[in-house]
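Researcher: Structure prediction, please.
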Amino acid sequence: MRRALSMLFVSSLAMTLAACGDKGDDEDADTDTDTDTDGSTDTDTDTDGSTDTDTTGTDTDTDTDTDTDTTGAVDADGDGYDETEDCDDGDASIHPGADEVCNEVDDDCDGDVDEDAIDASTWYADADGDGFGDAATATMACTTPEGMIADGSDCDDSDGSVFPGATERCNGIDDDCDSATGEAGTATWWGDDGTVADATADLTGTSDAPAEVLIDAPGIMEVCDGTWYANITIAADATLKSSSGDPASTILDGAASGTVVTVIGQRPAIVQGLTLTNGSGGYLDAFAAEGFGGGVACVGYDPKNPDAEADLTLTDVVIEGNYAALYGAGGIGLACATTMTDVVFQGNEAGSASGGWLGYGGDADLENVDFLDNFSGFEIGGAFWLSLWGTQHELTMVDVRVEGNEALTVAGVGWTQYDATWTEDDGESTCTNNIDDEVGGVLVNPLSTLSAEGVDFGNDTDGTDNAPWDILTGTRRGTYMAPSDATVECDDEYCGTAETTTIGSDASSAAVDLFGASVVLADDWRTLESFGFYGTSPVSDCVLDLYVLSNDSLSATGWEIEWSSIGSDHVGDTTGWTDGDVGMVTTPGTYYAVGFATDCAGAATYFYDDGIEAGVTDVGFGTYEGTIYTETYELLDADSEFGINTDDTSFYMRWDVTTL
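Model: Predicted structure follows.
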């Protein structure tokens, strides 16, 4: 028994010593178990986890303790990192890999403080200083970085007037950062002095009471989509424009109570991207009367300063459905230089003159401009320009269409003391289907010219021709029927260049009391300006009548009088009668008889041998075909009949025919 107790004591002491030796350095905390069955009590002082088994009566424990640590690093805070790894072994929340939080402590032992903290706030740059930041500049930080704020809802951080909750203006910008908020029905004034003001209330009127608006400071009045009942006066260097640039969506309605837009004073003004409609022609001091300029009126007139002018630019503008009791239903310019680009004058009506546009003075530059279906109760359906103060002006038209206008005189366009060029570029230039009693297409008045290239003047085939003429010159002597894509030069007397052709020789024969004419088959649109013949008469009572007849075939019947000059007395020896005021346009495919009639009371009259074979001579507008005559002359009417004769032995005459 003493031995057993002694062994137990030794074993216990060994275990105790072993435990004390591992303290702080050895983490092996196992207890070996005596599992043999020899009846002896084994004492195991190691803690290596092995099980001892006795094989004899006297146990010999052969376990070897592999734990040889006697010293080492301490993990005082038990966070799994010892004092060699942990930057603060007294705080279990601080160790490598720990979450960094906003506490001014290096939580993850990487040498940085509060970087990528899990509880950091998001900050946004506020470049425009409006108190709202740009979401694209988001930055995480524990404290507010310089120049940054906590709100990131700005939709334009470059504009301090754009932010959530801002007033929505008419400017094509989402001012309040809410795309659901529209600009339609708003207007904004942008002053050159930096003033920005909501002008919606100023422009808001009704069809019964339109707004009266005066723009008397430099700047831009910007109007958003909608119909605005207003009469607007521009008395400064200013622009009136739509935000969208689309005239179909932004409409200024004059409510039939005056001119829609009036420009006054010697300064530039711009109207852009708008429809001007339902104007009724207002009062002009220069005329001391109502009824001028329905859609727009530009007045730079100063009787004390003839050189003074306003300057009006119209761009992307539709001027339609306006009325003027007197002049310029679509618009009027009085001492106003105008530039028009992408403009339409359509369906305007004037009581007196110019359904579309009337310009008194000032150069005019038009590109891609339409004058369509305008009407005047007296003259000028489309547009007209005339000089002020006797100054010569320039009119330039590129891709200008003049179609379907009506008036009593000058349905299309015309000018006085203007030099006009009319060309086609990348669009088309047309002058078609303009109808009135005298001109039809174009009137080139005194001291004026027209240089046209590539202009379509229509034709009878498709019903687009002007009536009665394409071009009439101001002297009423020159008329011109131009073909499609015409190139023509006109002054205020003629279009084209005169060509004089003589038919016949000087052989003579006697004849008395007869009608005779040379017949020409026309092959071109030309103006027959004048004709004459040579002859003698020994008596003083020989009466001379001049005629131009037409027929669609070379036959004895069907001749119609196109022009006549009746009752010229002939006195003298060998001489020539010439009439320089025919001014008749020839039609291709038509036969013309250009001739005279005499009643010389039995006296002999001598005419010269034509000396020409039929179908040979080109007389400027067609081919000579022969002669027609009657031996007994009576005053002609439309039903007169003539014999056809191409036998050169029967009748002789010599003609001078001048065409243009």
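Model: The radius of gyration is 53 Å.
Researcher: Thanks, that helps.
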